Amino acid sequence: MPVYKVSELSKYLCAKLVGEDMEVVGLNALSLAKENELSFVEGLKRLPQAQSSKARALLAPPGFHQHLPDKSILEVTDVRVALAKISYLFRETTHPFQGISPQAIIHPSAEIEEGVTVFPYVYIGSNAYIGKGSTIYPFCYIGDFCEIGEGSLLYPHVVLYPGTVIGRRCILHAGVVLGADGFGYAQERTPEGFKNIKIYHFGRTRLEDEVEVGANTTIDRATFGETIIGEGTKIDNLVQVGHNVRTGRECILVSHTAMGGSVTLGDFVMLGGQVGIAPGLTIGRGVRVAAKSGVADDVPEGSEVAGIPAIKASIWRRAVKLFEKLPELFKELRECRDLIKNKT
Predict the structure, then answer these.
(1) How far apart are CA 107 and CA 342, in angstroms?
(2) CA distance 154 to 236
(3) Where does the chain hold its CATH 2.160.10.10 domain(s)?
(4) 283 in Cβ contact with 299 (< 8 Å)
(5) Which one-letter DSSP state was computed for residue 220?
(6) Longest CA span, the chain
(7) Reported pTM
(8) Which CATH class is domain 105-315?
(9) Residues that are catalytic
């Protein structure tokens, strides 16, 4: 279990320490923290909880020490960012198994670098490559010619179809499927109606460095070429990414989002939960799409959109407020109509 002095964490974060130095052995919520654990408070609304918390060391915005004189305060401008950086230091790094299990099935032509952990009941196909320090949990399937960069982590039941490429320090949670065929069919007219004819796929899926993919998310292979997930992109659970999609760097895709084939996302795009994007669209750099939106047209760089179909978020908010008043407005309109009728 890692142990850090608050002064060490102060240097790590380039933060100001106000109060006495002490050792902390973990990170926890205000209501759960013990005396020797670090906790955090983001605003005055949580101040009563911070005052009653057992935690003696806190991450907090500048000036909070005056409200918490008995605590050691690490003053940071963005508590959430500081929390994320600190969480890395206290993350779980040990695994119950080390090395390569004799119960794993590994093709003789597969190349496995030093420091790789392969749990029992893993399958690794021909000419696959596993980079230094990667960990593969039980029941993962790594197809022929797959590549996994160094330091990557695959939780149980991850499936990599043949030819899938994973960058360095990627995390794939349980049940992720990369490289399945996209949903592509041609419809042939027949006397009875239509017959769906499968379009076979010849491309692959590529994840760049430091991509994290949530549980049971699926990313389809390209029909031709590559489906690409850009560096640093984070994908939530239960997301569907269609064939030939390309995302930029550091995108966020929240749960239940679905993108049709050949969608292109610029860098730093954020898609809220249950967003749907029609095939072939281009979503510009820095775009934000509100939850439950349906995007049916290209979205220019820097825009914020919402609704079905998605429109400017500022217009959508006004429209929602107006929608609430429709019964009242309709009643007034009907009264005006009746008044005009009576006068004529």
Answers:
(1) 89
(2) 15
(3) 105-315
(4) yes
(5) P
(6) 94
(7) 0.90
(8) mainly beta
(9) 243
